[in-house]
TrEMBL record:
<feature type="repeat" description="ANK">
    <location>
        <begin position="177"/>
        <end position="209"/>
    </location>
</feature>
<dbReference type="InterPro" id="IPR002110">
    <property type="entry name" value="Ankyrin_rpt"/>
</dbReference>
<keyword id="KW-0677">Repeat</keyword>
<dbReference type="InterPro" id="IPR036770">
    <property type="entry name" value="Ankyrin_rpt-contain_sf"/>
</dbReference>
<dbReference type="Pfam" id="PF12796">
    <property type="entry name" value="Ank_2"/>
</dbReference>
<dbReference type="Pfam" id="PF00023">
    <property type="entry name" value="Ank"/>
</dbReference>
<protein>
    <submittedName>
        <fullName>Uncharacterized protein</fullName>
    </submittedName>
</protein>
<keyword id="KW-0040">ANK repeat</keyword>
Amino acid sequence: MEVNMNEVIPFSWLYADEHIPDELYAFVRNNLVDQLDTCLHSLTNPIEYLTALSWHGEEKLSLLMVAALHGHDEIVQVLLAHCQPQYQMELEGKVAISEGNFIDNITALQCACYRAHFTVAKTLIDIGSADVNHDNDKWPYYPLLIQASAENRLDIVRFLIENGYSNVNETQSNDRDRCTALIWAAFKGHASIIEYLIEKGADVNYSCKSDWSLAPTPITCAVLLGNVNAVQLLCNAGANTSAKFTNGATLLMTALKHSHFDVIDFLIKRSIATIDDLELTVCLLVDTNPSMNQLRNASKFFVLAMKYRESNQTPKVRIKPTIAYEYHQECQTFEELDAIKNDHDRMWIEILLIQERIMLPRSDCSLMRSLLARGDVLVSKSS
């Protein structure tokens, strides 16, 4: 018979004593230490049993994984005494870490940690030299610390950091990004994880090593996903608010693009961005030949900026009406904005007026691009 080496083979095909695997499983699962030890001593080939994987329902487990999942530390020590750890420790199975949440290629250490059996986890690392950087199918390339940070498992993060098994900055993903636990905690918005990692010295301005990552720093990750609590925690810890995304976008630009109003509000109220910044960024996100839907979206943010101006008592300084803008002036009231929101040509003029008001005093040459685009429209009309 031809045997596929990747196929999980029932114990009954391999061993004459078909009852032994079931007995061993029962001893391990039920924490019957003496019976397990006696049984293993009686076998001529215990290592074959201890290095095998077997299906139990929907889970594929080694005996060490079974012990880890149930938190049986004495059983773990017996298993390690009967078979050198290197032959058991990095076996990869399939385990449910929560109801219906199965992970393939998971190790005994991960089993223990995901089930919060940290005494067993400590034994596996201290005695068995379990690899804390081993990944799995759900989290390829990610060490256990980063997995736990992404899964919002503060208990696992604490265990690894406080026992010196992982380092908040040196433990990084094994892909080209080389991201840290704080990157993933910020991306997921896990406030308690972020607070803990910062407390333990995580670098809030660490940047991923690959240009393929749109959001390379913790704060850009938090802004991208609209996690305002994460943004606040990182800012309070000294994160660089001038950080940009790899496409050149600012924090405010990205928050606007994704309509993360809580983040926009935080950036304005913390003076990380000004109302002028808000208005100008809205303008810059509008195409030179915008759709009506894009202009209506811009109008929504102009209303928001006007609310901030009203709250802060900072009115606009309007430029004098000129023929270039058909003698229109910037809207000063909500009613005026509402009246133009469905007028394509007038909304485009509003955008140009805002840009000129803000950019001209800054001697920003990019203003010319918008003015030239407006000139093309006027030429087209006259022809």
